[in-house]
Amino acid sequence: MNFNNLDNKLFWPAISFTFMVLAAAVFFPEASGTFANAGMKWVTNDIGWFIQLSGFGCLIFLLYLALSRFGNIKLGLEEDKPEFSYSSYAFMIFSAGVGAALIFWAVGEPMYYMQSPPMFTEPGTPEAAQWLITYTLFHWGPTGWAIFCLPAVPFAYYLHRLKKRNLRLSQLCKTVIGDKHANGIVGYIIDIVAIFGTLGAFSTSMGLAVDLIGSGVQNLTGIENNIYMQVGIICLFIGFYALVMFAGMKKGVSKLANACVYAAFVLGLITLFAGPTAFILSYFFDSLGVMFNNYIRMSFWTDPVQKSGFPQGWTMYYWAWYFAYLVMMGVFLARISKGRTVKQLILTTITCGSSGCAFFIAIFGSYSVYSEISGTLPILQWMSESGVSTAIIQTIKSLPLGSFILVAFLIVQFFLMSTTMTSAAMAVSMMTTKELDQNADPDVSVRMIWAVGIGAVSMAAFFMGGSIDTIKSMCVIVGLPMIILYFILSLSLMKWIKKDFPELFTKSELMSPDKASTSTSNEVLEVAKTEV
User: Fold this and answer.
1) Distance CA 280, CA 160 (A)
2) pTM for this one?
3) In DSSP terms, which residues pair with 74 in a beta bridge?
């Protein structure tokens, strides 16, 4: 393989810094745990409001872009056409953003809330029950997907409209921070932190997926879910990723995402009709109504008086975790958005991502709640005795034809996580490639070395012995500096648009940006008709 196109000045420091942090956690577990917990406490208790405000701000800013005249800006040149069908495009967005963590938390999250419910409600009461699925929908809903989507817009504009072939994050920030800082130590730190954030956030998702799949294999075969099995599962992910990458984006990633989503939805429908269908549908729509009625309250609830710790431990954690995915989601969504408009990128990501998550949360979350409150399954007891992964596996296996459905469930989880790994490796590969090809793809050699690097980071993370609290703390700390980069990217985007389409910033001008240079109103009307 040829590694001449690999940006060694960025790749090796980024991967080395990541391993240094993980090594510190391995050899100094108590000190690392204390530091992580202290960092999370400071972030959530002192400036958690800033995380929540930033998350909600992402949603408002994106809706403004999509629904204003900026939404018609094409992410590419006039002759550029979308590379993927709309269904494949939506499926890739969804599968890249959720991984195996979605169903993990679709079952686990309501069970945690059942023990410590939000909004000052008492455990076991009807008032508490209405929030179990509501908050899970909220955490996997529009705000979270807006955080995923926002960096994709400037990345896509930079890649497809400006036709830049070096995606170092510092170069996108150059318009705001200046050439001197972007090409100096400040830019270097930005790139290192961005890659570290991607690796750190992804390793938490990988940890959940591997533990869940390992628990399922143990249940079916009796083979212990130990470190050897977990390392073996990660190696399978790397090997499968290699096959997908050699097949390419259209034949590999796109088809994998399509198969993944179709299989996952079939699994969801089987669970829906095999379980308490009426309860699942009623509970979901009731929870959806509660969420819509309280969306603003939930978005800004910090609980400063009673100090239950719920928004700090959950909402702020989720938003910080999503912010840490800046490079992964931003670059990957940008790569597949050539020929789309700003409106299409934003609305597809937010609506399809949120709707897909709601589908699985409605089914698996409602089924777990029904099973626990009806006494059909002792899910809380399973969680207490053996952990969340085991409880999820037991819950899935309780369905009719449980063993068959469990096998299908594990396969779907593997494919979902493979798609997420593909997007992560693709993103950091694009960022550490000196010059992308005309299709904006990094060299296969660069993609493969990052696949091995991501796998190695994930393996190392297992030796941390990290509990759920440690994982949360890492995500919060990593996600915080990313928020600043979100602001910088947003400013850069608006500066680029103002330079390319100055007429869009005048109140009297409502022309389509794709035809902004066209002088006659008749041509503008013709463009509008064509787009409609």
Assistant:
1) 43
2) 0.89
3) 341
Cβ proximity of 212 and 108 under 8 Å: no
- pLDDT > 70 in the chain, percent: 89
Given a cut of 90, whether residue 287 has pLDDT beyond it is yes
3-state secondary structure 429-452: HHHCECCCCCCCCCCHHHHHHHHH
Share of the chain above pLDDT 90, in %: 42
Please tell me whether residue 313 adopts helix, strand or coil conformation.
helix
- Per-residue model confidence as pLDDT tens digits over 265-278: 888 898 899 889 99
Once rounded to an integer, what is the mean pLDDT over residues 347-353? 95
Q: Work out the burial of residue 177: count CB atoms within 10 Å of its CB; fewer than 13 is exposed, 13-18 middle, 19 or more buried.
A: middle
* Amino acid present at 380: L
CA-to-CA separations, 56 to 84, 145, 309, in angstroms, rounded: 30, 11, 20
**Structure token digits, residue 410:** 């594990």
The DSSP-derived string for 249-268 is IIIIIIHHHHHHHHHHHHHH
Question: In this predicted model, what pLDDT tens digit does every residue of 396-418 receive, in sequence order?
Answer: 999 888 888 899 888 888 888 88
Angle at 501 between CA 499 and CA 505, to 5 degrees: 95
**Beta carbons of 188 and 381 less than 8 angstroms apart:** no
Helices (H), 249-336: 255-274, 277-293, 295-300, 310-313, 315-323, 326-335
Once rounded to an integer, what is the mean pLDDT over residues 327-336?
Answer: 90
Other C-beta atoms within 10 Å of 198: how many?
29
